[in-house]
Amino acid sequence: MQDLLTEKWEDFLKRYYWDEIIELSNSYPEKRSLLVKFSEIDIYDPNITDMLLDDPDVILESAARALREIDIPTGVTLDEANFRVIGLPRVVKIRDIRSRDIGKLVCIEGLVTKATEVRPKIVEAVFECPFCHRQFSVMQTGSQSQNQSQFKEPYECPKDDDGCGRKVQRFTLLVGKSKFVNAQKVRLQESPEELRGGELPQALDVNLEDDISGEVTPGDRVIVIGILRSHQRITQFGKKLFFDIYLDANSLELKEGEFEEIIITEEDELKIMELRDQPDVYERIIRSVAPSIYGNEEIKEALVLQLFSGVPKELPDETRVRGDIHVLLVGDPGVAKSQLLIYQVNLAPRGLYTGGKSSSVAGLTAAAVRDEFGEGRWTLEAGTLVLADKGIAAVDEIDKMKKEDRDALHEAMEQQTISIAKAGMMARLNSRCSLLAAANPVGGRFNKYDPISKQINMPPTLLSRFDLIYTLIDRPGAEMDRRTAEHIIETHYAGELLARLKNKRKIGEEGEESFREQMEAMKPVVPVELLRKYVAWSKRNVFPVMSEGAKKKFLEFYVGLRGQSYEDEEAPVPITARQLETLIRLGEARARTRLHDTVTDEDAEQVINVVTYCLNQVFTDPETGRLDVDWIAAGTTKSRRDRARSVREIIKGLEDDYGEEIPVEEVLDLAEEEGMERDKVEEIIDVMKRDGILFSPGSGVIKFVR
Predict the structure, then answer these.
(1) Does the pTM of the predicted model rise above 0.90?
(2) How far is 272 from 353, CA to CA, in rounded Å?
């Protein structure tokens, strides 16, 4: 039977893969695998494909033998080549794996969350008898092995012409003559975007061997074809009834495409094109973001632009410029920040949500750990930002994170990578995701006269990496409060009626009419599922380029604002090149919302309005009313910095009259004579005390820290 199968495989390979085999022989042994499409095996002989799915151990072994024994004109013998099958028609979800699949060839899609180091694994151990010095080999792997991590040792020497047949307590292992293969263990988890309704993602361990080991890192999305195996759980109390499952990989493919897990049919594509052709498509998409939340139109527009994002660029000097847009929402309690975050994650084709208070640096970025999974070896474990690669990561209450955890975000936001250096392990994982964060001010309410960095306990260096920062301030106003209250009451009323209908209770004709009206008002203009597919299609296929008009508008806006500082050396720096890059990213994102290949003048004007709104909200010096980028980037303004410098000079000047200890009242009087407000000078002295520049050795006096 085996010989017949081998002959059949040899015939198949010569007919369908002869050119590939010649190519493989030319690059052997650097390249050691022949990738064979399942569909072509099925065309050749459907019976073989049926046998391959049901009894893969035997069939793959005969296929590998045929490949290794085939005569090649180049004279190369492919004695260690691998026969790998790709393109299985049916993909099994990890949560759908059952006992009937054990021993079968299955195809699994998932997200790599853990990966061990690549290490040699012994597959054929050569032993020597201490009495007769007979050398013999013992295979360490095979389909019959229930626990492949167990090393098999012989109990007696083989009894033949050369062997003595004695039972020996310990044979000598000849490492130099034994055969090893590179091996790695990874953990696959269901993709978060496939889980709805709070389902817990399930995982499966996968063994990778030879040339497919070391090819993936945590955060990669892969398709693995292999044989599902099981081994019995063993504890200190004995063997258990339950078995653990794992996958012995035959082939591994990286999913390189954008959002391949989202299936877009021809019917979906027609709907997408129909939506694109609407004249007000941009406004319709904005109205589809969290329609149950009243107002906040500017923030909803920013969330739409973040959904589509700009175009990531690989420059000729190998520099990477991110296209993802980072957004920060800061504001008073009860203004629906968390609701906006959750809605955005549900809307995104790929999104993850986490809370800052419950997230550690390892959970948010990545970690190197030693645990049972790696059997004592170091394992790389991916965190939220790595798992959200090419998607959106939402972090609520980012102000509640510990300082050391927040510091890890610097690299993830700008370089979009996460570096790990631990115990000699150096690794760099991708975190090419947009960050949407929400924060509450330390005092409970937002105060425009204090820098945001001070109010949300976040360093200015991290704040400056956000493209758009919005403040949500709860200001009482008769008209706005009435509209908001009416919207909330009607939303709850519709919810009550819906609960009644679900429980098969009557709501009356009047209630039905009111219910229909309210449900229609809260319904997204574009259905959520269609919008997710629209975003995915856009990011897969649309890569807009700036028109000459858009370039000119961006240039004029940037130079125009910077021009405030050209003639007046005392003027603050209004914006930096970071805000110009933000403009370009937003322009590309707006073109993508229309599925357009060009960033037009209209796109440029619209995103200039978005950035201007943001600048006026958070980049404006509350004292002078002028734009000052240092209000965010440095946590202070030029006017405050100048005032602090003047106060310092006054204190230094008074040292000639009073010595080292200076009366505070004298400083305040002199500052007032120079035109400074008394309370602001007191505030500067308090800040200098907090920063360790000054201290009070006694009541009413201050002194420099020497």
Answers:
(1) no
(2) 27
